[in-house]
User: What shape does this take?
Amino acid sequence: MNEINKTKNFYTLMCLAGFLIILLPVGIANFVFGYMLGDSPCTLCWGQREAMIFIGVMALFIVRYGMKGKYLAALLIMTAIGLYQSFAHYGNHAHRDLDQGFGLAVFGIHTYFWAEVVFWAVVLLLGVIFAFAPKFNAFELELNGEKFRKYTKFSLAAVVISAIVVASNVFQAFVSTGIPPYVGQGDPVRFSLNPKYIIWSKEGWNGLWQNISFLGKRDVKAPDYAFAPASEKLGIKFDNDINNAPFAKINDELKITNEQTINFNKAINTLDYINNEFVISSKWDVAFLDNNFSVKEGFELDPYFSASIDPIIGIIPYMNDKFILMGSNKSFLRFAKNPNASEED
Assistant: This one.
């Protein structure tokens, strides 16, 4: 095979690789997960998706403007950044046990780990493509003195479809995240075009510059040791009086004083008395009952968005007006009542 034909094949492979990274991981995440399943990317997810788009665009730049060192350098740099982002994201959840995770899973693997697979695949495919690359002077010969290469039907279709996918991602990012100074969210709600459920938040900036640490917001302060009090730094007041301990006033004997049937249309998995009301749960349902065991309000958990909960096995109070629920997979969620919620919520 002569060098010119090898060059054309090289560009075809490069076009295919750039097109596929935008069409498959980015396109599926946007059209299927986003518009069809209502998944909304977190901050790190957006960063990884942007890195994939940048890699695909750089590959298409090479196809259009020829093989240039600056394009290859940009592609490799963005791949390295994407690997760092995906490793940092996966590292946040690597400690989780079987069946635990965050967000949607594809073939049992959550999307943040698939990002790691995609970026390593970029490294692998680049190696394969360059293994069949022509001699470097063939790139100049094939360009034939022109400033850019002519599109083939395939490369033109790849560029047009990629542009549509990128534009759709820009639209989703605008709806779910907003414009500066609004930033992405660590635990976003479902994607929706209903203004009622669109949240533009600046909370990502809070505490960002409080201290300089590679751990970022996960720079946990030392606890309140006896030899190094840290109450003021932690913003917590500790009560060391044993008479105020939770178990100080517990009676030694328990007696059944009354029995009553609870009218709830689902199997009750947990029952707790919290803040002068009963809190019960079924598999993914939570309800609040008055002292006569009549249901006042409740909600159904969306189990596979945010932390995966399967099923609820316990609910406890948290702070003054919030709750923590835990699933059998040892994942937990903090939640609070929303007085403005409607039936459709």
In short: The chain has two domains: 3-205, 257-336. The chain has a mean pLDDT of 87.
